[in-house]
What does this fold into?
Amino acid sequence: MLISEIKVKIPTMSDNEDLEKTSVLTSETLKITLDSANKTPATLVLLVGPASSIGKQWQLSGSDLVIGRSPNNSIFIDDRSVSKSHAKFVLAGKDTLVMDLESTNKTVINSQPIPPLTTVKLKNNDQIKVGNVIFKFLEKGNIEAVSAQKAFDRSQLDALTGAYNRGALNAYAPEAIKRSDLIGMPLSLIIFDIDHFKKVNDTHGHAAGDYVIKEIARIVKDKLIRSEDFFARYGGEEFVLVLSATAVSISANVAERIRATIENHNFEFETTKIPITVSAGVAVRSPNGVTWDELFEKSDAALYKSKNRGRNQVSIG
It folds into this structure.
């Protein structure tokens, strides 16, 4: 097989030195990567800002994309230094333009403030500062956008199940709360975990336990939730499901459907059938209601109510 080389410059701690690292890719892998890059629109990558979102990307497709602190913006940044509607990106043919929307703390391109309500053309690798938040602009077809997105995705996903991880949930939660208040709709939270999971590990081994966790995540992701629902493995055998604009009756039905589906599923590891059930707790937040931590505590308390009542059931907090 042909081998292709990509050389990537990586800065060292010294400003005057560079360490050159060579990554060797097969020609087929390189072709797939380049094809993905060619299809990638102009992109913003977060360099400095909320710690949980470092590396996050926003693809600039469509028209008049506003960046700001308001959750209804195309690019939502939860930082007090950013105005509610701080700046706007405009696509003009092959060019990407940015306009400051008379923000309090200005929009700065490569250390130069731009005048308000005036469009400025962006160039590849430009740094854009809005308030105290800094982005890098990558033009359409930039291969760095593909590699950066893959790295960010890996940091957000649980390695075993492919569901979101706890860090991704902690980053998503404040945004979900703000959007709930903005649209005036309830926000539902379901926490469920596997009953007697230690017994599964002790009896069948940790490989079997991993199989059960992975299979439960697959069932939930593929069969039981909507594409807009946020599903995460919180840790160990515990999972979290966030449902936007969902009333308590619907959330309870979703939790019950998860419980019943898992109870009736045939979990078989190396020809051995393993009976599995889960317990769940449901809590719902009305608009402008409790904080995320309070909502989580309500759902967690409902989960333990299910466990104390005998497990394999759903309780509402």
In short: Residues 282 and 316 are 5 Å apart (CA to CA). Residues 206-224 form the longest helix (19 residues). The chain has seven helices and 20 strands.
